[in-house]
Amino acid sequence: MITIKNYVSVDTVEEAYDLNKKRNNQVLGGMCWLKMMNKDVNTAIDLSKLNVKSIDEDETCFRIGAYVTLRELEMSTSFNEYTNGGMKKAVEHIVGVQFRNCATIGGSIWGRFGFSDLLTFFLSLDAKVELYPTGIVSLKEFRDMKVNNDILLSVIVDKKPLKVAYQTIRNQSTDFPVLACACSNVDGKYNTAIGARPGKAMLVEDDNNILAEVNEETIKAYSEYVMNRVDTISDSRASGEYRKRMVKVLVSRCMKEMEGI
Amino acid sequence: MEIKIKLNGKLIKEDVDAGTLLIDWLRAHKCFSVKRGCETSNCGLCTVFVNDKPVLSCSVLVARANGCSVTTLEGLQKEAEEFGAYIANEGAEQCGFCNPGFMMNAIAMFRENPDPTDDEIRAYLAGNLCRCSGYEGQLRGIKKYLQYKKGE
Amino acid sequence: MAEFKTITKPVMKKDAMQLVTGKPVYTDDIINQDCLIVKLLRSPHASAIIESIDTKIAQKVPGIEAIYTYKDVPQVRFSNAGQTFPEASPYDHQILDQRVRYVGEPVAIIAGESEAACLKAMKLIKVKYQVLEPVFDMHTAKDNPILVHPEENWRTLSYDFYKSDNKRNLVSHEEDSHGDLEKAFAECDEIVEHTYHCKANQQAMMETFRTYCEIDTYGRLHVISSTQIIYHVRRIVSNALQIPKSKVRVTKPRIGGGFGAKQTSISEVYPAFVTWMTKKPSKIIFTRKECQIAGSPRHEMEMKIRVGATKDGHIKAIDLYVLSNSGAYGDHGPTTVGLAGHKSIPLYTGGMEAHRFTADVVYTNIQSAGAFRGYGAPQGIFALESAVNELAAKLNIDPIKIREMNMLKEGMHMDAYFHEDATACALDRCMEKAKEMFDWDNKPDCVDLGNGKVRSKGVAMAMQGSCISNLDVGSATVRLTEDGGYLLVIGAADMGTGCDTVLSQILAECMDCDVDDVEVMSADTDFSPYDSGSYASSTTYITGMATYKAGMKLKEQILKISALKLNKPIEELTMESKEVVAPDGQSISLVDIATASMCFNDIPTTVTETHTSPVSPPPYMVGMVEIELDKETGEVEVKDYVGVVDCGTVMNENLARVQTEGGIVQGIGMALMENVTYTKKGAIFEESLMNYKIPTRLDMGVLRTAFESSYEESGPYGAKSIGELVIDTPCPAINHAIYNAIGKFLYEVPFTPEKIVMAQDE
């Protein structure tokens, strides 16, 4: 059980960062996971007053504030238009509407959870995260960064020509995925993110240009390539062996969905 | 810390512990319709509205609800009786323990989408677990209620 | 069939509007909130001896009232199982014990002013364990040199029947047979033989275990608990605390689901002990995690079955051996296993010449099992019905046809069911109806949908009981009230299933009045007449009959008073809805009779009747399922489930339908997703609803139900039971559909996508 002594709704990101330097202080997200932690928090840091609650769009990018809820992402017309409805697909299986009204993108991405649909999906979009004070870094880089005292302010998705497809396998409809797969083509470049391996999502790029030409055969070759590049292990939901085989199945299906084959 | 919350229409100003979860605060304020069924944000029993949005009160700090309006089934008795009668007419309430959370989320759905398809109903309410009814009776009740609302 | 006025009708549950509007009617809503909070320190080890336990520092935490260890509690053993005395289950529990036998077993009871204080104190209790080697594998548990219960004060009250022996890790052993088994098998052309496995499913009722205790005006212990078994809880608390039963009162408010979980006393003894010692009110509310790791789940069972038939499909012999894992304690162990055989094998009474049913139930160092809807029958039926489907496939006979040829029919003598006769059985009509609703004959076994998915169908039958014959007792007290209505007082526990309402309907039918004229009050050991409790599907059949008898008796009393008041011979009088009438048209209203009963009257208008039964007439069901299966990923989606039930006369159409639907969905959960796995140390991984997944409304497809009623003369207005039966068909029916999809049967539930993919490789 988490205990919290003080609660501060900060006025500036500097204030948040200063508070967050203390080891027993904690930035709040949607509280869905945090409340299960066994931690005695001295000061809980609420970012609500910062510019973190909206999805802002201009000609070049989407800036999704850290406190934007999963439900807001699911319902965002413009972001779903941009992602072919992929955003909705990536979150609609997460527990339920009420949960998604609580959980935030900031919390989900910051946690870099293995089971995360969001990390998988946004990795495939070549997204970036806005950190204070570190600045803007790619999500791919952030995924491997050590947990530090930075404040995650937003997730940024640059507008580029995009195709994306998202599929998962679950033992039960609102459970964590047994495997999550997002295939994308961002500005002409193919990527695949595989999550719930069950480790945190991995990004596999088409380095060997297998998909120079896209057809049934190259998709098959590509899905095998991704399968061989991805590590999977066993947990209570499925074995590593099963997951590995499913990488190939889901990559192939996502590619076909994306390319209309 | 001091908070101001409009609970079921009534303004409450109070000093609370920073770590208090909304569910516990609500039960302490005699909103006993708010139930806890898990500790992992999975069951939907504790659903209440914060600024008219259905949320899990087990996953919201009361401090975060500061300045908001909070609604529980105690504050929606008229709708609960009207819609609830359709659930009761199917016998679908069964043990009733999941019912308040289910009623809250169903009411939220009606407000957001007054004419949902069966699949939309299932999807919107997927986060409301019920171990007794097998869900089918709840679906029947919802559909009959919506039919009645259309004719109203 | 007779026309009924009240029963069969879809009457709204008497408590329904209170429940749907969220009124405070459950344990934690109605109690004194200013009470001690009780928390339990639990063992991290599957098997250990407490070498030392130091609570001195913990006691000093502000707000802590008391901390108890094994040294503080009575050193006597009792059973937690809610069963009629003398219990079948062994006396193997203590409130706290120096030896711990599973991960999660209570080690200390902490009582304090707040949860925070209790949790703080919990961290400060110092326990030194001597960790022992546990017994995890149920296959090697029997006669293993490592004993789960080596203690000398372990005892059984039922050795003659169950052969329970703690020195063999044996909770029970059972054998039952008829006919010349080997001869019958020798005459078979095809024999299917497999071992099937069911895991320890959790009831996962939405309201976790919880109990509040206080000392009443007379210095007695008042236990308010979410339980199905008030009278058994009174005995268990009395046994545990070593205080007279008369000093204990148990009441049950509304309960948030039970499904058998609350047929074991899981949470009661801890606050009971705290309150008895401190004389202060206290409560315990189990967390979901506690519910998952220290509750009373379904017994894990392994069924080794042989089913033999001639090549034309005549099923001649069934041989079933069941190994059941009772875990650390024997609660419901000896009895659940019996249903795996007794409630499956008789389905094929039709042509069966011989059967044998053998069972062993063993102790291991995991969470103790208990009662869960179906009580052993789902396990046995999963094995038998899967085997019959496999047999039909091997013989190339339609699976419906092989059932029609061999199934139990009305009037048959059931050698495998305690030699009872099938007095009321519409299993054949259930099959016919299901076939028609499902359109079985026009649906191919399997259709390729072209996208890697196939659509396929499956079928299974089931039976259950309607009570525990020669054992269960139900009673009802009926009173004529001042306004000419009735008060019905029962000891059965409505857990949401609606027995308060169904019993009121029975009384209303009997008294020819409206259900609204019946008020009902239930489950208080001080006021309710004795009832064994709500389990074994017995409430409608047993307590319903007691209610009927009480109604008939009260009618006589009413006529007696009327005879005096009207000055007519009693034989001439007839009771109509609201009055008693003489042939000459003179009449007296029930209100006037009630009024007369309170003035210079010695004819009681409160009567109590009790009922029991020498038989347990089975209800029957046929389930048919259509699934879509993704051959590449192994994912299964239930599209359509048809369930046709013979529960005798349907008492309340709505409640029976919802029971059926709820049972089917629980069965779907058992078949497809509800899993229990253990760490190497024996801890349960699925200790939350995050990891123990039960079906949501996206996991169940469309359910269609219907009733084909037989009429059971020994039940109230022809009723049998329904509560448990309805969970039995999904596992084997879905297994059959999977076979039709991939050509392979599975032998272990749940049928996860992975198992389905891997099975195709074999």
Produce the secondary structure layout.
The complex is a heterotrimer of chains A (261), B (152) and C (762).
Chain A: E1 3-9, H1 13-20, E2 26-27, E3 40-46, E4 55-57, E5 61-65, H2 70-75, H3 77-82, H4 86-91, H5 97-102, H6 105-111, H7 117-124, E6 128-132, E7 135-138, H8 139-144, E8 151-158, E9 162-169, E10 179-186, E11 189-195, E12 202-205, H9 216-229, H10 240-259
Parallel strand pairs in A: 1-3, 2-3
Antiparallel strand pairs in A: 4-5, 5-8, 6-7, 6-8, 9-10, 10-11, 11-12
Helix pairs in contact in A: 9-10
Chain B: E1 2-7, E2 10-15, H1 22-28, E3 47-50, E4 53-56, E5 69-71, H2 77-88, H3 99-112, H4 118-124, H5 136-151
Parallel strand pairs in B: 1-5
Antiparallel strand pairs in B: 1-2, 3-4, 3-5
Helix pairs in contact in B: 2-5
Chain C: H1 16-20, H2 27-30, E1 36-42, E2 48-54, H3 56-59, E3 64-68, E4 99-100, E5 106-112, H4 115-124, E6 126-131, H5 159-162, E7 170-178, H6 181-186, E8 190-198, E9 210-215, E10 221-225, H7 230-241, E11 248-251, H8 269-278, E12 282-285, H9 288-293, E13 300-309, E14 315-327, H10 333-342, E15 354-363, H11 377-395, H12 399-406, E16 413-414, E17 420-421, H13 427-438, E18 446-448, E19 453-463, E20 474-480, E21 486-490, H14 499-511, E22 518-522, H15 539-566, E23 574-576, E24 579-581, E25 587-589, H16 590-597, E26 606-611, E27 620-630, E28 636-646, H17 653-672, E29 702-707, H18 730-742, H19 753-761
Parallel strand pairs in C: 1-12, 10-11, 14-15, 21-22, 28-29
Antiparallel strand pairs in C: 1-5, 2-4, 2-6, 3-5, 7-15, 8-13, 9-10, 9-12, 13-14, 16-17, 18-19, 19-27, 20-21, 20-26, 23-24, 24-25, 27-28
